Amino acid sequence: MNITTTSKVRSVKLGSQGAIVSRIGLGLLSMSEMYGEPDEEESVATILRALDLGINFYDTADIYGLGHNEELIGKVIRGRREEVFLATKFGFVREQDSKPWMVNGKPAYVKSACDASLKRLGVDHIDLYYQHRVDPETPIEETVGAMAELVKAGKVRYLGLSEASAATIRRAHKVHSITAVQTEYSLFERHIEAEILPTLRELGIGFVPYSPLGRGLLTGTIADPNKLGEKDGRRERYPRFSDENFEKNRALVERVRAIASRRQIKPGQLALAWVMAKGEDILPIPGTKRRKYLEENAAAVEVKLSPEEIAEIESAVPLEAIAGARYNETILKDIDR
Questions:
Q1: Can you tell me the distance from the alpha carbon of 174 to that of 156, in angstroms, rounded to the nearest whole number?
Q2: Between helices 291-299 and 40-52, what is the axis angle to 10°?
Q3: Residue 96: which pLDDT band, with cuts at 50, 70 and 90?
Q4: Which residues are catalytic?
Q5: Residue 46 phi, psi (nearest 5)
Q6: Does the predicted model carry a pTM greater than 0.85?
Q7: Which residues are CB-neighbours of 38 under 8 A, at least 6 positions away?
Q8: What's the CA gap between 55 and 9, in Å, rounded?
Q9: Which of 76, 90, 72 minimizes the C-alpha distance to 128?
Q10: Residues 6 or more apart from 271 whose CB is under 8 A from it?
Q11: Which pLDDT score is estimated for 6?
């Protein structure tokens, strides 16, 4: 598919509080770190190209590049702020590039983190403010209570949670309406289907999948994870890229490639189409720092899958065949389950 032959990406509702965003968003993390060497010139071009394509839903966080990511998007959208639905996150405390990161959901920290993000972004409000991880030492009611005060103050428009359990989501939603929950979701990671997604739908909360391409695995472009480069953190953080797991997972990707080939699309486009076929309330935010891949991802919005094709795709990537956990043990401990 060629994005130049299509109309702009359409807009849809995010949650039930009035937010309207593009059907697919753009994750910005790789523009600062974690996925190889950043390229600021190409990153800027990619962000601007996304706007031209109708993609206005940008996802960043205060820890991405230790603030660099927020500064980057803030600089690029200056003068076009009204076109952008800007989402950022707080909760991880990462004052230097060391492990482990700490999680902080204390009310005073929520407010100071928001002010710091507003300053880096160079904006007067954040459209969607997520708690990046749930703080087990701070009741969610206290954290969301502080977030609600930011809404009252006009600093934030909508509230979100990231990697929260169904029980936590329910408790949070009683304090203040939650517009969106962000969690990993792809053909390689479907844990949300059992309890979290039904809870979101019951409460009228939108779902924003991150890593819908399996951190690049489902694009079929990674032949050897050992050649990802020194500044690529995937082998260290994600067991599915380890020597003992990668080839098993690559075999599954080849099945996806075969199905995509019949449709004359790319494996990543098929994987994104599968995510979006799961519901209009599911708005993925695939990350990229290159216009080429942005355009491929945008074109996936137009790929429609029949029930038979969805069943075939899921049969090609059975959950029991996926090798390795989605995070290493250090990172998994910060997941609210």
A1: 18
A2: 30
A3: low
A4: 64
A5: -70, -45
A6: yes
A7: 30, 31, 32, 65, 289
A8: 6
A9: 90
A10: 186, 187, 212, 213, 214, 218, 219, 256
A11: 55
